[in-house]
Design brief:
About 30% of the residues lie in helices and about 15% in strands. It has about 200 residues and is of the alpha/beta class. It starts with a helix and ends in a 7-residue tail after the last helix.
Length: about 200
């Protein structure tokens, strides 16, 4: 999303109308905590949920905070993002990282969780094959999540060769540039007409 805002000034209905700080997925080190905060302490490395919610609506109360109508997303107009030295954030939306994980890896926790959720929603199982459309951060994390769930045959489709090269480097079975070929036709050839489930 940061790249889209930087290059095009918008994503769908979200339009940058004034200067905005980018930075959607992030992690950092706690430098100060508010009164009553016990979940993290100064010095903890944390991953940051890029959207925080009201905590009061019916969705938040049911644990479905992703559906909160009042969610605030980092680096989504009109809200600034995390490319700053300090970020003030609700304690219940930061998550302590394990001791063996640095903040660079921590910044990938949220996109990897999106990939894990996509795999869970797909119903895919050990031995299945899959196609991932798009090999940006979320697409690559989805491919890695598929691999982690025993789905080793993963075809990746994109229009940017640099991204496809990264997908191949990370273990894609085959990659297809949709601007240069009919990806469906190519996958059908590779699978003997079976396609993917």
């Amino acid at each position: 999303s940061d790249v889209h805002y930087y290059e095009f000034g918008r994503i769908g209905d979200f339009v940058v109308r004034k200067p905005m700080i980018l930075g959607h997925e992030c992690a950092g080190v706690v430098t100060e905590v508010g009164e009553g905060v016990t979940s993290v302490q100064v010095g903890d490395r944390v991953a940051v949920e890029p959207g925080y919610t009201c905590g009061k609506c019916e969705f938040c109360k049911k644990g479905l905070y992703n559906l909160c109508p009042d969610v605030v997303f980092l680096a989504t107009p009109p809200y600034d993002g995390a490319f700053a030295e300090y970020l003030k954030y609700p304690a219940d939306m930061v998550f302590k990282l394990p001791d063996n994980m640095d903040t660079e890896e921590g910044a990938l926790v949220e996109p990897f969780c999106v990939g894990l959720h996509a795999v869970a929603q797909s119903g895919g199982k050990l031995g299945d094959s899959a196609v991932v459309l798009g090999s940006g951060c979320i697409g690559l994390c989805t491919m890695l999540a598929l691999h982690a769930n025993g789905i080793r045959t993963v075809y990746v489709v994109d229009m940017l060769q640099l991204r496809l090269d990264k997908a191949k480097e990370l273990g894609a079975t085959a990659v297809f540039n949709a601007g240069e070929c009919d990806a469906v036709e190519e996958i059908m050839k590779l699978t003997g007409g079976a396609g993917v489930p």
